[in-house]
Amino acid sequence: MNSPALDLLRRVFGHAEFRGQQAAVVEHLVDGGDCLVLMPTGAGKSLCYQVPALLREGTGIIISPLIALMQDQVEALEQLGVRAACLNSSLPGDQAARVEAQLVAGELDLLYVAPERLLTERFLALLGRSRLALFAIDEAHCVSQWGHDFRPEYRELNLLHERWPQVPRIALTATADPPTRREIAERLDLADAPCFITSFDRPNIRYRVVLKDNARQQLLDFLQPRPGQAGIVYCLSRRKVEETAAFLCARGIQALPYHAGLDAGVRAANQRRFLREEGIVMVATIAFGMGIDKPDVRFVAHLDLPKSVEGYYQETGRAGRDGDPAEAWLCYGMGDVVTLGQMIAQSGAGEERQRLERRKLDLLLGYCESTRCRRQSLLAAFGEDHPGGCGNCDNCLEPPRTWDGTVAAQKALSCVYRTGQRFGVTHLVDVLRGADTERMRQLGHDQLSTYGIGTELSAQQWKGVFRQLVALGLLDVDIEGHGSLRLTADSRAVLRGEQAVSLREEVVRKRERERSARTAPAAVQLAPADQPVFEALRELRAALAREQAVPAYVIFHDATLRTIAERRPGSLAELGTVGGVGAAKLERYGPRVLEVLDDAQEHRLQARVD
């Protein structure tokens, strides 16, 4: 049975049906109810407020934290024939005034605005003179003081409900663990509103974690089997961003840097190239990404450990928004744990906040060292059960070998204790392997009972033991002590022989490089006869995008072009049945698409004659 919402979805957006809980959210919002929506990136959160905004009288006000997201969404909506606009600091004064006039006159279906502008008395007065369909608070996790993307202005957005209690509100996020969800509901006065939760699983993303051993070369080993793919490489520091981008460019990879220290014009130009050109690799700090709506990002690589599982999920979620196979590659080492711990200690945050940040870091390290299904571990952090065995992560594709590390753990923990819990991994490994150095003799550590008792393992293997003991909570990193290791309460049971310890085997880099290339997910394949048609359609899309100075994906997604290449519709009516081709795009681009298909048919017939 058709409904006004479903009819609009098909006519405007070109989708045959709603997905998951979209229909329930849309119906609730159209009826005037408030709600909180948690959906993973790529699950269609935007439709949850765009469709109701078009069905209800007035303008839908979308609160969004980033200019890039606003512009992206507005360009995509304009392609669909929707009256959309945004108000932000990038607009010239006369253009902003024109948008404000359109709002008051009721000439806009959706208006995107930053929270800072929304909260000004001048803009609130404009809203008071306007007909409002709904308020959509996007990236709602920004309300959380303990979150990775905290924005102070988000905490004041409850005034929307106070001033306009009759206007429905929807808060949306793709990243929120249970405590963050509770905080969102409390801060935005949504405690009594229903919460629509879709699985956080992104089944098209392949998760892979590797241990640092010349990280830059490891990144190159990962990228070289994936030529021409668009991706994001995250680094912890601005300096590392620029050095890594230069390193990749020198090796023939189109890489651009992005961090908050760059000139604003350079940042904007690099972001524009990433969005509008094919195969660009953006090397960036986490200043880049939130709100980036580019659907064909094929990988997200982390050259350093992120700050939390929540941040890791948010950042990796920028890959594969189009549903095609994508990868999340993470390269980490013990040095990352020390560096991030020092950043937490030097942040100036209160003790409670620092404790929480350290717990989040411990959880992420545990994820890296775990031998179980990555997807199972990741989703558990968001309170979601997964049976494991996903078949699309490194631990499932090539299960890691484990060994009984109880004795090795006892030796390592004893060495930490005997040296006074004041030394880092490098020195502890030297003690265990009996290094004959002047420093060893000066400290008197060559006289310890643990001196030279670990010659059966290599230095690399011992480093792996210490790293895993930290991940298991049996050792703690003393950040103020420059990375020295200390025993925890849990280590006592291991030392007494009351608890066994299972450790994962270290993987040498050569095997790792071979495995990275071998386990790359297969790209979506077309039949050989359809591939030239697909490429011709991509050329048309590129030309249309250049004509309008918009990203190619706002014209058509690759999935839409693949379907057209496979079906070869012979009329506008047939083309209109393809997912992603709404009425406005059919009218605007349909004839030129059919021309491409006609040309392809002529070439095929000519080839048969020849």
UniProtKB/TrEMBL annotation:
It catalyses: Couples ATP hydrolysis with the unwinding of duplex DNA by translocating in the 3'-5' direction. Keywords: ATP-binding, DNA damage, DNA recombination, DNA repair, DNA-binding, Helicase, Hydrolase, Isomerase, Metal-binding, Nucleotide-binding, Zinc. Its cofactor is Mg(2+); Zn(2+). Residues 527-607 form the HRDC domain. GO terms for molecular function: helicase activity. Residues 26-194 form the Helicase ATP-binding domain. Residues 215-364 form the Helicase C-terminal domain. Its EC number is 5.6.2.4. NCBIfam families: recQ, recQ_fam. Belongs to the helicase family. RecQ subfamily. This is DNA helicase RecQ. It comes from Arenimonas soli. The lineage of its organism: Bacteria, Pseudomonadati, Pseudomonadota, Gammaproteobacteria, Lysobacterales.
